[in-house]
Amino acid sequence: MENLNQPQPVAKAARTAPEKKSFSIGALIDRFLAVISSVPFGIILLVILLTLAMIGMLIQQQELDTFATYFASLTPAERAIYGRLGFFDVYHAGYFNFLLLLLSLNIILASIDYFPKAWKNMRRKKLTASPGFTQTLRIKHDPIELPQFSREALAERAKEAAKALQYKVKVTDKDNRTTIFAERGAWNRMGAYAVHVSLLTVFAGGMLTSLKSHQGGMWVQTGKTDDKMMRNVFNLDQVGQQALELPFTVEGLDIRQTLVDKTKFIDSGNTLDWFTKVKITDKQTNKTEEALIHMNKPYDYRGYRMFQASTQEMGGARNVKLRVTPEGGGAAQEIEIPLNGDAQLADGTKVHYIEFVPDFVLTPQGQVDSSSGQYNNPSAHLELTKPTGEKSRVWTFGEQFQKQVDNDPALKSRLMPPNGPKFVLLDFEKASQAHMLSIQYDPGANWFYLGSAMLCASLFGVFFFSHQRLWIVCEDGKVYMGGDANRNRLGFEDRIKRIAARIQGVTPTENEA
User: Fold this and answer.
1) SS3 letters for 447-485?
2) Which helix (DSSP H) or strand (DSSP E) does residue 292 occupy?
3) Is the distance from CB of 429 to CB of 298 less than 8 angstroms?
4) Taking the CB of residue 365, how many other CB atoms lie within 10 A of it?
5) Which residues lie closer than 8 Å to 479 by C-beta, 6 or more apart?
6) pLDDT digits (tens, 9 = 90+) for 404-456
């Protein structure tokens, strides 16, 4: 028989398995959008981009002409680290573009999140108010008591006072009181979005620059034509050059320099300005135009900007002045010839100026060379074309060296034809033999400039103006005032005081205008 006094075993409660948390795709997307659209996330991205921009300023970029020299000055460790991190071309790095896109997306999503509230504050008008409501607002004025005036008279005074301080007013009569809603600068609520649009315009310009821009250099010589520019290319631990074909050709027409002292050399310390005159021929249309490029005056063509970058410090001559004595004697003739130009002698012989050598020397192989870039032994190479069509070439020198050549039959036979006029180099205009033009193609530059101008204007509008709303409630003999502003509340408070003074009939000072 069962013992009822013995404790019976208690049935254990069935254990329920813990519910598994379910992660829906929608929830993950919502969380991702919440993070990517947050203001702190945008600030972090902006700080990272500014840091990378500073790196690009501190570490010389590979597109510069002086990059090879800078790269050679780095240690092997610096070359390896900077190269693998992409610091030598940081503005074209993939991660830089990705961060720009991410920040742009952050700005767009944040604008979408906050726009409804800003639009509501700008468009929704509270046209009626009570005395108690005005006293709960952030900026308020003590009630004004003018028992001698009716509600209508006070309302008229308040309306005129608000208008005098450039407020837009709306008057509403309700419940034996008149509410004057005064507002100015409502557009300021959209100022933040103007800033956002400006930033997006700047970023769009940056993206175009990163994806489409390229820069290189081209040596320009008088009489030479080229259609390619050379740019530096970095490959981890070495620097090379790559030729980029242009959609036009550049022909050097003239190279000259404005020297401080014409008796000295043509280096940068003795030069006020460099001038490069070129002829540009479009490959598609075959149209040509001439351009003069000099310091602080670049030339723009089809989105390409050309400006002076450097000069070759090899002495050249823009033109030469010669004394010509006819064969067999007679009156000497002086002529002046520009580089690659022509002059005609009295007997009809055409003289063409081919090239200039600043420090003439003959190599052991019998080749003409220059032992230095200095004007130690200047000489000009000429081509003579007689009226009969017979052509010959001659080297001409200064008077002293010319005598040495004339007294050395072997040297004379190498440098001059057996027959013909005698030439002496009297003078020449010093100029470099070649100028380096830096050529930039940057389709994002105009977008960047536009965005920057928009950003300056929008920031000025945001910080120097404000959205001000003021409610003036008028009853018989009493006026209640209160309002708020999204910034510059001290200025708004001062305006309320001036409106109150006008309602009370106090004459405004000159500063209230």
Assistant:
1) HHHHHHHHHHHHHHHHHHCCCEEEEEEEECCEEEEEEEE
2) strand 288-294
3) no
4) 6
5) 143, 144, 146, 154, 158, 472, 473, 500, 503
6) 888 888 888 888 888 889 999 999 999 999 999 999 999 998 999 999 999 99
For residues 206 and 30, give the distance between their C-alpha atoms in angstroms, rounded to a whole number. 29
* CA separation for the pair 334, 345 (Å, rounded): 9
| Calpha distance 248→282 (Å, rounded) | 4
- Determine the pLDDT at residue 237: 59
- Which token pair is 441? 């193609």
Q: Tokens 């002496």 correspond to what residue?
A: 424
SS3 177: strand
The model's pLDDT over 145-163, given as tens digits with 9 standing for 90+, comes to 999 999 999 999 999 999 9
The pLDDT of residue 1: 42
The vertex-98 CA angle with 94 and 100, nearest 5°, equals 120
Describe the strand order of the beta sheet including 168-174 as a list of residue ranges.
Answer: 139-145, 478-485, 468-475, 177-184, 168-174
Q: Can you read off the two tokens belonging to residue 12?
A: 């254990």
342 contacts 354 by C-beta, under 8 angstroms: no
Q: Is the dihedral of CA 148, 150, 153, 154 positive or negative?
A: positive
Tell me the average pLDDT of the chain: 89
502-507: average pLDDT: 84
The tokens for 97 are 């573009």
Do 312 and 221 meet the contact criterion of CB atoms below 8 Å apart?
no
Distance CA 250, CA 437 (A): 10
Task: State the pLDDT confidence band at 513, using cuts at 50, 70 and 90.
Answer: very low
Residue 12: DSSP 8-state = P
Please give the Cα distance from 391 to 386 (Å, whole number).
Answer: 6
- The Cα 122–Cα 285 span in angstroms is 54
The two tokens of residue 162 are 């608000």
| CB contact at 8 A, 189 and 135 | no
Question: 221 is written with which tokens?
Answer: 């010589």
Alpha-carbon gap, residue 80 to 74, rounded angstroms:
10
**Going edge to edge, which strands form the sheet with 422-432?**
333-338, 315-325, 422-432
Calpha distance 393→386 (Å, rounded): 11
Question: Among all chains, which residue has been given the structure tokens 């950003």?
Answer: 455
Tell which residue, 181, 185, 125, has the closest CA to residue 472: 181
Predicted confidence (pLDDT) at residue 341 exceeds the cutoff of 90: yes
> What's the CATH fold of domain 132-185+470-507?
TATA-Binding Protein (3.30.310)
